[in-house]
Specification:
Number of helices: 10
CATH superfamily of one domain: P-loop containing nucleotide triphosphate hydrolases
Mean pLDDT: 87
Distance between the termini: 35 Å
CATH topology of one domain: Rossmann fold
Structural class: alpha/beta
Order of helices and strands: EEEHEEEHEHHHHEHEHEEHH
Largest sheet: 6 strands, mixed
Helix content: 25-40%
Shape: globular
Strand content: 25-35%
Strand order of the largest sheet: 7-8-9-3-10-11
Amino acid sequence: MSVNVLHLDHVTMQFGGVVAVNDLNLDVDEGEIVALIGPNGAGKTTAFNCVTGVYEPTNGRVTFFGETIVENHPQGKMKKLYAGDDSTEYPQVISQTPDCITRKGIARTFQNIRLFSALSVFDNVLIAKHMRARQNFMSATLRLNRKEEERMRTETKALLEQQNLYHLKDEVAGSLPYGLQRRLEIARALATEPKLLLLDEPAAGMNPQETNELAQFVKQIRSEYNLTIFMIEHHMDIVMQISDRIYVLDFGKLIATGTPEEVSSNQRVIDAYLGVSDDAEN
């Protein structure tokens, strides 16, 4: 029986009069690679931001391994702050911060690479390792726990070696070729020891060779790190090659879901998305 990792329950995100995500329901099960696709402006990255605590959704709930991490029901589910029939009722809001959500086991990359571009490759990954540090801020700042620091440096070295990046450890991250910067960003996400990895257009800006290498890389890290992967991608060759299931958004609404074969033959999807250019950017 499959284990549900991520569940979005009637998630809506509204900015003023614009509904970026409209009543979205989806599931990602353990071990899957699930893709979220759709035209530019369909609401894909907004959905990711709701999952990772960047946005508090206007309505709906997000659960991770059955635990509610984000919830907002302004006109539905309520909770009473005081006992008694005359108590005041308020909307139930649960909004964990991005760092708390990361500690629970959700890591992500971004549509636009967000490395510490002036720092070395090694330091970019080491910083992420501190998310799992077993020391407080003061001891880390004063370097009072040398064993803990050494453990994180050893784990950083091992991770860079596994990702074939260790020979670049002293290179400034911003000086790397684009494809290697993408790979480093994924390595930094892996350093937080996630159970669920969200990839936001990982192939954006890559040439065909880099794109093919990325597809193999994503499958490799799923196996090596026992990961579940949820990704946004415009390169349909990657989507069709490695996805177990696909969700399709159009103007914030879910218009189709299914296997790559089912989605690619869905006329509504063809009309809304597959028949148009696959330019990047949401």
